[in-house]
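Reply to dn_fold:

You asked what the input looked like. This is it:
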Amino acid sequence: MDTQLLDNAIRRVNDFPKPGILFYDITSLLTCPKAFGAVIEEMYLRYKDAGFDAVAAIESRGFIFGAPLAERLGIPLVLIRKKGKLPGEVYSQSYALEYGTAELEVHKADVKKGDSFIIVDDLIATGGTVDATRKLLEKAGAKASEVFGVIGLPELNYQKVLSPMKITTLINYDGK
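and this is what came back:
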């Protein structure tokens, strides 16, 4: 994997979404077909023999990477959405944010008891959203043993929150 290609394709935005935050914007990576294709190919090569039953993709940028992975692996894509975005019966999981709480949901019908999932998102920072996704899948009787993120911010200690999950990121940045 050419990490320089990825690094060059990822836009940095200072003071977004609030002062003091350096935002790593993957939308610029999506405008570079060579970089986007390299990410999808790397994911496929890493997971083609892993034996996952489904991909859980986190709203919204996780959908972009999770969908082609699920299609190439020939397994279901299960969407993890913010509260109130899914019709029908859902499992819900609250989690803490820096200033408050949020809630994720998944359709009950989409998660099969005993299924093995890989969780996909664009960026892993503190690990809170991924951890909430893992708990959400566990409520449904499934298991998530791995997480994939294009970008990782390991200095924010997501490893501690997500242990013992296997964590794969293609490029890591200082999270400060």
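The first strand starts at residue 11 and ends at 14.
Hope that clears it up.
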